[in-house]
Here is the input.
Amino acid sequence: MDRRTMLKGALMAGVSAAVLAHSGSVIAATPADQLVIGMDMSAMRGLDPHELNQLEAAEVAANLYERLIVLPADNLADPQPGLAESWTISDDGLTFTFKVRSGVTFHSGNPLTAKDVEWSLRRLVKRGLAPSVDLKQWGFTPENVDSLITATDDTTLVLQTPELWNSNLILYALASFSTSIVDSAFLADKDKEGDMGGEFLQTSDAGSGPYSLRTWRANDLLIAEAFDGYWQGVPAMKRVILRHLPESSGQRLQIEAGDIDIASRLSSTDLASLDNGDVASIQRTPGFGFYYLALNQKNEILAKPQVREAFRYLIDYEGLANGVMKYYGNLQQTIVPAGLIGAVENNPYKLDVAKAKELLAEAGHADGFTLTYYASPATPEAEVAQSLQANAAEAGITLDLQIGDHIGKFRSREFELFSARSGDRLPDPHAVLQSYATNADNSDEAQLTGINAWRTAWDVPAEIQDQVRAAAHEPDQTKREAIYKSVNEAYLAASPALVTSFQRTDAKAIRNNVQGYVGHSTWLTRWDTVTKS
Here is the structure.
C-alpha cells in the first residue's frame, strides 16, 4: 500500500492527517474527544485475549472485552462485580456460582449470556495457550472443563474447582484479561481447523467492552471506537488511537508537540526531561514482577551457592536506583512483591566487590572465569546489564555481554547468564512464587517453559515449594501472610538462581490536559474513564 492510499484510508476512518503524520513536524494538539497513545507495537502479534500475553496488547483487550470480576486499580485486593453482578461460594470452597448481568450487548448486537461465559472460559482452557495458566493452574484441563464450568441458564454460571484453593485466587483469575468473555454466537462460523475463531480474533474483536476495534495494522496503527451500546454509558473519548513509535526520542518530541497524549516505555533520560517540564506528568504504575538475573544451574560454576551469592554483591543497587531505575523499578531483593500480603522490607545486599571476591575464592574461583551473558536491548535492561558487566570485571569475572532478543534461549535453558524483567497479572504472591519458587520437575523432558525456576534448571528447595503450595491452598488470609513472610526469608537464604533486584514499575508520560488514565497493575488500564480539559 502506498502512502497516498494509506493516508486516504486513515482519513476515511475519521482520523486527521495530523494524527497520522510521520514527518515529525509540529502539528496541532489531538482532538478533544480522541486519545492518542504512542508506543512500541512490535510485540503486539495479535489481539485474541485467550492467546496474547503482552502488556500493550492486554490493555487493548481490557477495553474491547469484559470479565466477570473487576479489580479496582486503587484496591486490587477487593474483587468487584463486572459482568457478574454477584456471586456466592459454597461452604466447602469448591463451587462458585455467578449471577451474570442481564442487558449487556456484544459489539455484534448479540446479547451476552452465561452461555457465552461458559464457552469463553472453556475456550481458554482448551486452546491451552500461554494465558490459559490463569485457569489451568487451578486444575482445569481440556478433559474436565466441560463438566466443571457450566451455564445452568442464561444468567447463571457455575464453576467448580477440582481442589480447594484460596477463593481470592479464583476471583483474581476471573478478573484477568485472559478470562475475557467473547461472543460465542458471532464466532460460531469463524472456526478454522479447530482454532475456535483464533485466526479471526488476531485482527478483529468479538467483545462487549466500551470500545470496538475499527482498524489494526501491525507495527503501524490501531484505532478503537467508542461502543454506543455499552451498558455503562458511551465513553467521553470517541476514538482511541495507538501509534507505533518505537523510538523513545520520537515519542518525547511528539508528546511535547501535542501530537500524542500519552508516551510509553520512554528512556530514563526522556522521562527525566518531561518530568522537569510543564507539558506532561510521569505516572509510575507498580507491577507484580521483577528485574531479575538468571543463573543457569546446568553450568557447574553457577551451580555453586557461593557463586550465586557473589552475584548478589555485584549489583549496584543504590547507583541504579538513583539512575536508570528511577522510573522503572523500586529496590527489592525479597520475592513477594511490595503491596501484597506477606511482603517485607528487607534489602540486605549492596554493591561489595570485595565480598564477592571472597565468596568466589571460597568456591574455588579466586582467578575468576568467563561466561556469556544475554540481556534485553530495551531500556532499562541494557543499562542494568552493562552495570553488572563492569562490576563483575572488577571481581575478575569476564561477562561476554550479548544484547538482543534471547528470550527463546532462556526458555529452552540454552544460556549461562540472562537478565530481563517479568510481569505477573494476578495481585497475589502466588502469581510470582509459582514461577520463581516452584519447579515440580527439573528434568529437560518436563518442558515447564512457563516457570522461570525451571528455565534456570534450579531444583528449588522442597521447604520453599511446600510453603508456596500450602499458602495457595490456605483459605485463611492471616495464615497465608505468615507463610509468605517465611518464604521471603527462605528464598533469600537459598542463594537463588533467580536474583531479584528491583520490583518493576511501568512508567508513562501523560499530557497534563488528560485526566482519568489510571495505570493498572494487572495490565487492565481502561480508556472509558478518560476525559480531557
User: Anything to note?
Assistant: The longest helix spans residues 477-493.
